[in-house]
C-alpha cells in the first residue's frame, strides 16, 4: 500500500521527527504544511491543477492580479483588441523587467511579465490600454484544498505523501535553525522531485504555446 498522510497523521509525524513541543513550534506546524504544499505545486508541473483563466490588465498599471487561489502562473498571453492577435509574454525576473522598462510613464503593449508576490504579477512596459477579460489570459496552477484541521485529506497527502513530508521537513529544520538537517531534507526532496519529473515527462501532453493557432483561438474566445 502506498504511503498517504491525513492532516492528523502528518502533524503527528512532524512533531515526532522534530522532537520539539515548544508552543511556538506547535503553532507553526500548519504553516510548515502550507509552505510545503506550495513548494510542491511550484516545483512540479501538475497538469491536474492547471487551468486557463482571464486576467484583468488595467491601462497604466503594471501590477496585475493573479486568478484567485493561484500557486504559480505558467504562461501569460495578451491580445490587442485592434489586431486580434495573441502575444505570449515570456516570464522574466522582476529585476529584468524594471531594467527593460525603467520609466513607468512609457507605455506600450506588454512584452514581459514577472512574479511580483503571492497575489500579483508585474508586466512591462506599462500597458497602453486595458486588456480586460477576453483579451488577456493566463495558464495557471491552482492550489487544491490543502491539509488542515478542517480538511483531513488532500490530493497531495494521498498521492505525493513522501514528497510532502520532506517539504515539511525543510520548513521544520529552517524553523529550528538546523542547516545540516535542512540540507538533508532538501536533498531527499530534490531527489524525489527529479524522479517524479522524469515520470511526468514520459506521458506529458504538449503544452499550448501557440495561442494564435486556429484550433486554440476558438478555446481562447470561449
Describe what this molecule looks like in 3D.
With 222 residues, this protein is of the alpha+beta class. The chain has two domains: 71 residues, no CATH class; 96 residues, no CATH class. It is built from seven helices and nine strands. The strands form three sheets. Strands 1-9-3-4 form a four-stranded antiparallel sheet. A hairpin with a 4-residue loop joins strand 6 and strand 7. The protein starts with 6 loop residues before the first helix and ends with a helix.
Strand content: 15-25%
Anisotropy-based shape: elongated
Q: Total strand count, please?
A: 9
What is the typical, i.e. mean, pLDDT? 88
Quickly give the structural class: alpha+beta
InterPro entries: SU10_adaptor
Region (Disordered): 198-222
Quick recap:
Residues 198-222 are annotated as: Disordered. The chain is of the alpha+beta class and 222 residues long.
Topology:
Elements: H1 7-18, H2 23-43, E1 50-54, E2 63-65, E3 70-79, E4 86-89, H3 94-100, E5 107-108, E6 112-115, E7 120-124, E8 126-127, E9 136-142, H4 155-159, H5 161-176, H6 179-203, H7 214-221
Parallel strand pairs: 5-8
Antiparallel strand pairs: 1-9, 2-7, 3-4, 3-9, 6-7
Helix pairs in contact: 1-2, 1-5, 2-5, 5-6
